[in-house]
């Protein structure tokens, strides 16, 4: 693997700067499952270092340096991540259907084309630098800071499936027709994602000796403040996180009709589809201490 980078300051002033950064990373000899054809006594699967990929893109960064109590950092990244495989078993369906070890360039599973991040920080200093409110003459917000991070990004690739298949059905040769690809491999995208993280903290200076001083940082960190339900995974036939499309298909209707209680079967099947892995983590709150010395 090797990586190249380039950074150019487009506009710099006393309190701000606009920077353009370009990057290129090449990945080689990645592990991928392969089919050893015409082996004795039979064809079998193994692993080989046959995959490769590239990650390239541009970042535009606006840095508003500390001005009074405020600092802001805004970043937009355009990225292209392409390669022959996203993981060691990403070609398993291909080899399971007795296809040759084909290599072709597709968007990788982690390719996020657009990413916007804005960080807004507001904090008070200490001593003569303090300009906050006073309570009985005391600087009650000394060394107190608040940080908000707004993050949004486009979805990641997945491969559309032409015909809905039953959730949990095995992958094999007999399912090759039903699992036919619709469009290109990794040609579809999950929805955009958005989240806000917030952090409130206070530094408490502790004098250890005449020459040494430590800092105790007390913080409240809330991740995904709005508890946004971001979709990170979908069913390939529908592009939906809660419906694989099978029950409404002719095969699904036939399967449900053959059950002892078709209504109960459909209800329990729909419950099975509610996969928490299809969503990002919910709101999390952390209260903590950090001691620096």
Assign an overall shape.
extended
Strand content: over 45%
Structural class based on helices, strands and sheet pairing: mainly beta
Q: What is the N-to-C order of secondary-structure elements (H for helix, E for strand)?
A: EEEEHEEEEEEEEEHHE
Major β-sheet annotation? 10 strands, antiparallel
Could you give the distance between the termini? 38 Å
Rg over CA atoms: 27 Å
Number of helices: 3
Low-pLDDT stretches are: 171-177
**Fraction of residues in H or I helices:** under 10%
Instruction: Indicate the mean pLDDT.
Output: 87
How many beta strands in the DSSP annotation?
14
Describe the protein in words.
This protein is mainly beta and 293 residues long. 8% of the residues lie in helices and 46% in strands. The chain is built from 3 helices and 14 strands. The strands form 3 sheets. Strands 1, 2, 3, 4, 5, 6, 9, 12, 13 and 14 form a 10-stranded antiparallel β-sheet that branches. Strands 7-8 form a two-stranded antiparallel sheet. A two-stranded antiparallel ribbon has the order 10-11. A hairpin with a 5-residue loop joins strand 12 and strand 13. The chain is extended. The two termini are 38 Å apart.
Write the layout of secondary structure elements.
Layout: E1 2-12, E2 16-36, E3 44-67, E4 70-83, H1 92-96, E5 106-107, E6 114-123, E7 134-135, E8 138-139, E9 144-153, E10 157-158, E11 188-189, E12 193-207, E13 213-223, H2 250-257, H3 262-272, E14 284-292
Antiparallel strand pairs: 1-2, 2-3, 3-4, 4-5, 4-6, 6-9, 7-8, 9-12, 10-11, 12-13, 13-14
